[in-house]
Amino acid sequence: MKKFWVALIAVAVVAGFALSASAADVKFSGSYYATGLYADNWGLKDDASAGGVYAQRLRVATAFKIAEGLTLNTRFDALEGRWGQYGYMGTAVDRQGHDVGGRDADDNNIAFDRAWVSFAVPFGQFDVGRQAQNEWGTRFASDSFDAEAIRFSTKNGPWEVGAFYEKQIEAYGAEDYDNVVSDGGVNDGDRDNYGVYGKYKWNGGLAGLQIQFMNDATENFANLNGDGDYKAKIWTFSPYMQGTFGPVFVEAEINYAYGEAESELDWDDMDIRAWNAFIHAKGNIGPAYVGAFYAYVSGDDPDSDEEIEGSNFFGASGYRSGLPTGGSIFDPCLILWGAYANKWLGDSTARALSLGTDHHTGAVMENAHLFQIYGGFKPIPKLDVQAKLSYAFADEKPDNYDDDEYGTEFDLTAAYKIYDNLTYTVGFGYLWAGDIYKGATDNDVDDTYLLMHRLDLSF
User: Residues 429-457: pLDDT tens digits?
Assistant: First the structure.
C-alpha cells in the first residue's frame, strides 16, 4: 500500500501546485471491476480439472485543466490481479500459494500507463506524451495499448482530420543504439509508426479512413523461418463506418496491411499481405433487440514460405505489431476470445500445451472466421438479458491438422443496473469444442463451460 499512498500524495501535490498557480479544474474518471470465474474442463480434454478465480482492477484517469485549452492528462491502474495474489500481509503469491514477491510486494501494484498534455492552437489541437494507441474505428481490431506520441487534429464542420507519430519501441544497448545480430547483420531495434486520418460525421452516422506506415526493426520480425533478422515496413489502410437507419444500427470496418519484411542478411525478402473485416447489424424491437455480425482475421498460409498473410505466421500466436488481429478490446464471447476468461483463467496457450496442439482462441482473435447471432430483452429498464450463439473456424488450417473448426458456443448473460454507474452481470457459456484442438495428434477433445459474475463501476 505504500506505493499507493506515495502515488496519491504525488497526484495531490501536482494538483495543489496547479491549483495555486492557475486555479486548475481537476476532473477524475475511471472504472473498477471485480469478477468471479469458474470453468470446468478449461483444458478441453477428458482429465482436465475444474477451478475458479476472483480478480479485479481499478483504473483512474485525471484531467488537470491548467488554462483554457491546456490540459494535463494521466491514467493509472491499481490492484490489478487475482484476489489473494498479494496475501493478507502484502506478500505476493503464485496460484499454488508460494511466496514469489516477498513482504510488501503490494507496494508495486500501481502502474501509471499514460501521461500527456493537450493544448489548443488557432488551427487545431496537439496531444503530446504517452497516450492511447490503436483505438480507431469500431471496437473490432482496436486495442488499448499505450505509446509515446505526438498527435495533431483539427475540425471543420462535419470534418475532422489529423496526423500522428508514435515511438512504440526505442531499443538500445549496443554501439549507436544498434542491435548486432550473431550472423553479422545489424538491426536498429526501433519501432516507429506514422499515420494520417480523416473522419466525416452526418446526422446519425460517421465514416473514417486511417492510413499508417510502420517501420519495425525490433525482434518482432526477427529470425523468420530461421533466416536471420528482418525489418518490416508495413502500410495499413483502415476504412470504417457506423450509422443508424431507423431502428437499425449498422457498422463495418476493414484493415488491410501491405508491405515487406526485408532481410538484414542475404535472405529473400517476404511480402506482407494480411487483412481483417467486420460487419455488424443490430435492430431494436420495443424492449427487445436482435443482432448479428461476421468477423474475419486472415491466417497465414503454411504453404507460402515467402509471404506473411496473418499474425499467426509460422504458428506463432500473439501480437505481431502492424498485422491485423481482432484486437484486445473486441470481446465477442465468454470463452472464445473472451477477454476476462482468457486473462484470468489462462488463454489458449495453456490449453494448447495441455493438448499438444497449436491454436489461436486466446484473448485476441487470430486466423479465424466468426459468425454470431444474438438477441436480448429488457423487461425493465435496469435489466438486460441476452443470449448469443457463435460459430468459428480457422481461415488457414495449420500443417498436418485434420480439422479447422474451433467450435460452437452458446452464451447467456443477465446484467442489472444497481445504480446508473454500477452494474452486476451473471453469465453462463458453453463451448462445443471443435476438432482443430486435436492438432496433428489423436488427442481426445472435450467441451468446456464457464460460469461468471462481475461487478462493474464507472465514474
Answer: 999 999 988 887 777 888 999 999 999 99
- Burial of 442 (C-beta count, 10 Å sphere; 0-12/13-18/19+): exposed
Rounded to whole angstroms, the Cα distance separating 167 from 170 reads: 7
Q: Give me 401's grid cell.
A: 491438422
Helix, strand, coil: what percent of the chain each, to 5?
Answer: 10, 50, 35
**Unique residue bearing C-alpha cell 489502410:** 237
Alpha helices per DSSP H over 387-443: none
Question: Distance (Å, rounded) from C-alpha 25 to C-alpha 138?
Answer: 31
- Parallel/antiparallel/unpaired status of strands 307-308 and 270-285: parallel
**Nearest CA among 312, 442, 322 for reference residue 364:** 312
- The 10s digit of each residue's pLDDT in 55-87 is 999 999 999 999 999 999 999 999 998 898 776
Helical (H) or strand (E) element with 2: helix 2-22
How far apart (Å, rounded) are the C-alpha atoms in residues 150 and 156? 21
Residue 33's H or E segment, with its range, is strand 25-40
Using CA atoms, how far apart are residues 450 and 420, in angstroms rounded to an integer?
27
For the stretch 119-136, pLDDT in tens is 999 999 999 999 999 899
The model carries a pTM of 0.86
Contact 103, 90 (CB under 8 A): yes
**Residue 437 and residue 208: Cα distance in Å, rounded?**
38
